[in-house]
Automatic annotation (TrEMBL), chain A:
Record key words, sorted: FAD, Flavoprotein
Protein name: Xanthine dehydrogenase YagS FAD-binding subunit
Keyword check for Phosphoprotein: no
The keyword ATP-binding is annotated on this UniProt entry: no
FAD-binding PCMH-type domain segment(s): 1-228
PANTHER family from the UniProt entry: OXIDOREDUCTASE (PTHR42659:SF1), XANTHINE DEHYDROGENASE SUBUNIT C-RELATED (PTHR42659)
Pfam family membership, one: CO_deh_flav_C
Organism: Azospirillum oryzae
Gene3D superfamilies in alphabetical order: 3.30.465.10, CO dehydrogenase flavoprotein, C-terminal domain, Uridine Diphospho-n-acetylenolpyruvylglucosamine Reductase, domain 2
InterPro entries: CO_DH_flav_C (IPR005107), CO_DH_flav_C_dom_sf (IPR036683), Diverse_Substr_Oxidored (IPR051312), FAD-bd_PCMH (IPR016166), FAD-bd_PCMH-like_sf (IPR036318), FAD-bd_PCMH_sub1 (IPR016167), FAD-bd_PCMH_sub2 (IPR016169), Mopterin_DH_FAD-bd (IPR002346)
TrEMBL record, chain B:
Organism annotation: Azospirillum oryzae
Short name of one Pfam family: Fer2_2
Domain 2Fe-2S ferredoxin-type, first and last residues per copy: 24-100
Entry annotated with the keyword Iron-sulfur: yes
Alphabetized InterPro entries for the sequence: 2Fe-2S-bd, 2Fe-2S-bd_dom_sf, 2Fe-2S_ferredoxin-like_sf, 2Fe-2S_ferredoxin-type, 2Fe2S_fd_BS, Aldehyde_Oxdr_Iron-Sulfur, Beta-grasp_dom_sf
Chain segments carrying region Disordered: 1-23
Signal peptide: none
SUPFAM superfamilies linked: 2Fe-2S ferredoxin-like (SSF54292), CO dehydrogenase ISP C-domain like (SSF47741)
Protein name listed in UniProt: Xanthine dehydrogenase YagT iron-sulfur-binding subunit
Length: 336, 183
């Protein structure tokens, strides 16, 4: 690892002073917050990320999980992934989120990794990690090794000619379906970011993962009251039964009137640069009976613009079947 | 090879390399003993244990959090010691494989691993056992499949998995019996 300096401030204000006056987004910053460290230190060992200074926020008082007015739940940015997944309120009211968190990483990593850090983890694209190859995300303007290389795990939706990497998180897929709100604080005070606006598509600036500014800190993630506890699931399809990133994952949540769908939420992981949601596919389901045929139609709408790369066209059919199965499980409908 | 010029390296562009930052003092309680070390900020907890304290029971496998050989307990919770910095563990209580036995009496999991022949080369074993201690403390495993899932962060290239599951299962069952049959 390259040399860096280290500081452990004892308040949020002191932590913010530690990253003050940095331009751009957090992805580009030379001074980084560290909390769990599971992704950042790994990337520093690989020489992919080279911060000058680490500001350790892991002991700040942002690790609680608390009720909020209106029936929601506030997940502290520094609550550990394991503590969040096993929290009795999360399990009872947001089982899809608990399941998604436990589908990711290993028990050791979930004990270290924080909720805020989960949002900021970076792609596992091989070319991003391999400093001997071009990568527009790591070194803008050098090109994309994955476009003409090995791209089995890459995007089928929302990709660009500059980057076909996918966001690796499971937790974020469930948070997208739940329409969580990211609470951040910075020099201009607090602000909230709807989950759909937190991560971004690559376009021609794939080196920027999120809209979080370099001088801002995530303090919490708010879950709305509506948790879809009765009819929801998280389905993850991967190469191993455990401890592997998703080829395709689906967070599916329904509100039902008898067998009629009132509201549907669908978010996909492993297919795009951010958790993928599509209002048209969700609208396709509203007011219709919960049936395999309607689930198939919704999956076709969601995947209408999907484009396979040389090694991952299989993901399109895989995603279609995963969506149908996840919706069927959420609705309690028999499926093949 | 020229220096990369991406945003991640912008802090290094157009300037001489900064002098190495100062070493830092870290005080930890390791297996019941208080230790103060002087380490560089980028020293992992794993390297602090192995290279600064000569406690080589904790193994370095992949050094990227993928194999679990470096698993230790920090404040009672299992973590990958390769993915945390020694300076981040200031004031924490660390338990390694060297700290599990009481004198000559092995920890029940150590005994069970011997009894079930739950290893071949033994390199992953300290991590497997520390991870299993953490898993039993967490209390979420009920079935053999749960054990497999919750131990998936510990790889065994010799493939001793069936015996590892059997060893953990035995200790889990005997603990459940001691707790009056409660799961």
């Amino acid at each position: 690892m390259r040399a860096f300096s280290y500081d452990r401030p004892d308040s949020v204000d002191a932590a913010l002073r530690g990253v003050a006056n940095q331009p751009g987004t957090t992805t580009e910053a030379a001074v980084k917050f560290v909390a769990g460290g599971t992704n950042l230190l790994d990337l520093m060992k690989a020489d992919v990320m080279r911060p000058d200074r680490l500001v350790d926020i892991s002991r700040l008082n942002l690790d609680k999980i608390e009720e909020v007015d209106g029936g929601g739940l506030r997940l502290g940015a520094l609550a550990r992934n394991s503590d969040t997944a096993y929290d009795a309120r999360v399990q009872a009211r947001y089982p899809m989120l608990s399941k998604a968190i436990l589908a990711g990483a290993s028990a050791q990593l979930r004990n270290m990794a924080t909720n805020g850090g989960n949002l900021l983890q970076r792609t596992r694209c091989y070319y991003f990690y391999d400093t001997g190859t071009p990568c527009n995300k790591r070194e803008p303007g050098t090109g994309c090794g994955a476009l003409t290389g090995v791209n089995r795990i890459h995007a089928i939706l929302g990709a660009s000619d500059h980057c076909i990497a996918v966001h690796p998180s499971d937790m974020c897929v469930a948070l997208a379906a739940l329409e969580a709100i990211v609470r951040v604080t910075g020099p201009k005070g607090e602000r909230t970011i709807p989950f759909a606006d937190f991560h971004r598509l690559p376009g021609d600036t794939p080196h920027i993962d999120s809209t979080l500014a370099a001088d801002e800190l995530i303090t919490a993630i708010d879950l709305p009251a509506k948790g879809f506890a009765e009819h929801s699931t998280y389905l993850k399809v991967r190469d191993r039964a455990s401890y592997a990133f998703a080829l395709v994952s689906v967070a599916a949540a329904l509100e039902l009137d008898g067998q009629t769908i009132r509201t549907a939420r669908l978010a996909l992981g492993g297919v795009a640069h951010k958790p993928w949601r599509d209002p048209a596919a969700e609208a396709e389901l509203a007011g219709k009976p919960a049936s395999l045929e309607n689930f198939r139609e919704a999956s076709r709408v969601l995947l209408r613009d999907a484009k396979g790369q040389s090694h991952n066209a299989f993901k399109i059919g895989l995603a279609e079947r995963a969506i149908v199965r996840a919706l069927a499980e959420a609705a309690g409908v028999e499926h093949p | 090879m020229s220096q990369p010029t991406g945003p991640a390296s912008q802090g290094h562009a157009h300037k001489q390399p900064a002098p190495p930052p100062d070493l830092m003092d870290v005080t930890l309680t390791i297996n019941g003993s208080r230790k103060t070390l002087r380490v560089a900020p980028w020293t992992s907890l794993l390297d602090a244990l192995r290279l600064h304290l000569d406690m080589t029971g904790t193994k370095k496998g992949c050094d990227h959090g993928q194999c679990g050989a470096c698993t230790v307990l920090v404040d009672g919770r299992r973590i990958n010691s390769c993915l945390t910095l020694a300076v981040m563990a200031e004031g924490r209580t660390v338990t390694t494989i060297e700290g599990l036995a009481s004198g000559d009496a092995l920890h029940p999991l150590q005994e069970a691993f011997v009894e079930h022949d739950a290893f071949q080369c033994g390199y992953c074993t300290p991590g497997q056992i520390c991870s299993a201690v953490g898993m039993l403390e967490e209390g979420h495993a009920r079935t053999d499949d749960d054990i497999r899932e919750l131990m998936s962060g510990n790889l065994c290239r010799c493939g001793a998995y069936p015996n590892i599951v059997a060893a953990i299962r035995q200790v889990m069952d005997s603990q459940a019996q001691k707790d009056g049959g409660k799961p």
